[in-house]
Design goal:
The chain contains 18 helices and 25 strands. With about 525 residues, the chain is of the alpha/beta class. Helix 2 packs across helix 4, helix 2 runs parallel beside helix 9 and helix 3 packs across helix 4. It starts with a helix and ends with a helix.
Length: about 525
């Protein structure tokens, strides 16, 4: 039986026979199935927690929540990566609450805004995150406030009374989580309502492309992103696959990632392309190839072709690129080694394939639309629309945006791209990534200009931003360590002069490094502000 057919049969068995149609049902099933398997390992101290131990702690939290909260109440969670995320999120799903994770890097005022906006009845937070708790209490909406590092929390999780009934019965089409968007479109993050069905469907989509665990030397997962943001998508796959999570805390320096991956023999690593730059440089400097890694997953932003080629050359064909968004959970497309490896005997990977976001996964449907919402043929640039069960339930308290972007299980994104003749998706960028216009009015995206300069041997990393619309785009460049600054400037100037006038940056600025967001993505907003 081939892997694709086996995946479909397993999906049918889990969904239709075992009736795993909500995250709560999946959590209960996975914790029973993988009871004595280590689920969580803290890379700082080596402490481990098994599936059954996590389930027991979550069950006690469920009993505690049911004394203070009602079915459907919003539970906000603000903390750096830790084992607590898994047990609190599991308890929220099992108790029928709406789980709202917030990044620990958010300003306190932003956290206050989201608590009020979502009408959060509970706040579980880390004492390491400075929050104005007196103001939150005075507001009167949030009636349960608990520090996950406190003795009170430990008492509830370790010695409290277990919930008699798990999990709570919920409709798959009601909201399971509130997740915050990146806020790049309008500067103000939106709250996306994600249903139980969307989370479960995201897992079933991933099943169709996952590497079977039997082929791996170990089944250990290392995430270099906050669990409260992009890392949240791995929650159900981890549980259902019986994986062991190696927990590394923010800000995820390359040395810590390498040490954790080496010590605990991680088989999967998830990180942004910007983090991948730093990881590759660190590994090459220390002659480290991380042989236990079977898969290096990168996503959340465009990965430059030179970076992917260098990673394939250094680590081997282990790189997997994914595409997704908060409003339509990943995986929507995937680019795997099978897609980009050149035919036998040819040198290097297929560069044209590395420029893409990969093939469409499973039951997802894509369309590329013109300005009037009409579908465009292959090869023509337009706005990307996604349709499928992983599409969220709309934005919270935002009827205008919902009417413009959500149509049932279809989401009209702010991403622009096109489909090629081979069925691969090319994502060029968002509307705010347009940095210039061609003479015919067609947009020039930052990625197109950056790719011109990535071809230069002196360029390690580059990014385009528009600090002043009257002056045009500025190219920010990080040079390779061996590059001479004077030679590099001449090389950069020659490349700029060879470009069409509408592609030429107004200035080129050298930088020792490019700024990153707390998620680990390139921070174009900070570049523009500088």
């Amino acid at each position: 039986m081939n892997a694709a057919l086996k995946g479909k049969l397993t999906r049918f068995w889990l969904r239709s026979v075992k009736r795993l149609t909500t995250p709560g049902a999946m959590i209960d099933f996975a914790c029973r199935r993988h009871a004595d398997t280590p689920l969580l390992i803290d890379a700082e101290n080596g402490r481990a927690l098994t599936f059954s131990e996590m389930r027991a702690r979550a069950g006690r939290l469920v009993a505690f929540f049911r004394t203070r909260l009602r079915h459907g109440d919003v539970l906000a969670y603000v903390a750096p990566n830790s084992a607590r995320y898994f047990e609190v999120r599991a308890a929220a799903h099992l108790a029928g609450l709406i789980f709202m994770p917030l990044s620990a890097s958010l300003p306190a005022e932003t956290v206050l805004y989201f608590l009020d906006f979502a009408d959060a009845k509970a706040l579980l937070h880390s004492g390491a995150v400075p929050l104005p708790l007196n103001r939150i209490r005075a507001n009167g909406k949030t009636t349960l406030i608990l520090d996950i590092d406190s003795p009170e929390y430990a008492t509830q999780a370790e010695a409290g009374v277990a919930a008699p009934i798990l999990p709570a019965s919920v409709d798959p089409d009601v909201t399971a989580t509130y997740n915050v968007s990146s806020g790049t479109t309008q500067g103000v993050p939106k709250v996306v309502k994600i249903t139980h069905r969307a989370w479960v469907s995201s897992f079933y989509q991933l099943m169709l492309t996952a590497i079977p665990t039997a082929t791996l030397a170990s089944n250990r997962y290392l995430c270099a992103m906050p669990y409260a943001t992009a890392g949240s998508t791995s929650f159900l796959p981890i549980l259902m696959a019986g994986m062991t999570v190696v927990i590394v805390k923010e800000p995820f320096p390359p040395a810590s990632l390498v040490a954790a991956a080496r010590t605990y023999r991680a088989s999967r690593l998830f990180l942004t392309p910007s983090q991948l730059f730093a990881l590759l440089d660190h590994c090459r400097e220390h002659e480290e190839r991380l042989p236990d890694l079977a898969m290096i997953i990168t996503g959340t932003e465009h990965a430059p072709v030179p970076l992917l080629k260098e990673c394939v050359a250094w680590f081997g064909p282990k790189i997997v690129c994914g595409y997704g968004m908060v409003e339509a959970l990943p995986p929507l497309t995937q680019l795997t080694p099978t897609d980009y490896l050149a035919p036998k005997g040819a040198a290097g990977p297929r560069e044209a394939r590395l420029k893409t976001a990969g093939r469409i996964v499973g039951d997802v449907a894509f369309s590329v639309l013109d300005n009037n919402g009409r579908p465009l043929p292959s090869g023509q640039l337009g706005r990307i629309a996604v349709q499928g069960d992983t599409v969220g339930g709309g934005y919270l308290n935002n009827p205008e945006e919902n009417a413009a972007c959500f149509q049932g299980n279809r989401f009209l994104s702010s991403d622009y791209g096109f489909m090629d003749a081979d069925g691969f998706l090319h994502v060029q960028g968002r509307k705010q990534d347009i940095v210039a216009r061609r003479p015919d009015g067609e947009p020039v995206f930052a990625r197109e200009l950056e790719d011109c300069f990535y071809a230069l041997p002196c360029v390690r990393q580059c990014a385009v931003a528009v600090p002043n619309p009257d002056q045009g785009p500025v190219l920010f460049v990080v040079l390779r360590s061996a590059a001479s600054e004077s030679d590099a400037r001449r090389e950069l100037d020659r490349c700029r002069a060879a470009l069409d006038p509408w592609l030429q940056p107004s200035a080129i600025a050298l930088r020792p490094a490019l700024p990153l967001t707390p998620l680990g993505k390139l921070d174009r907003r900070t570049l523009a502000a500088r």
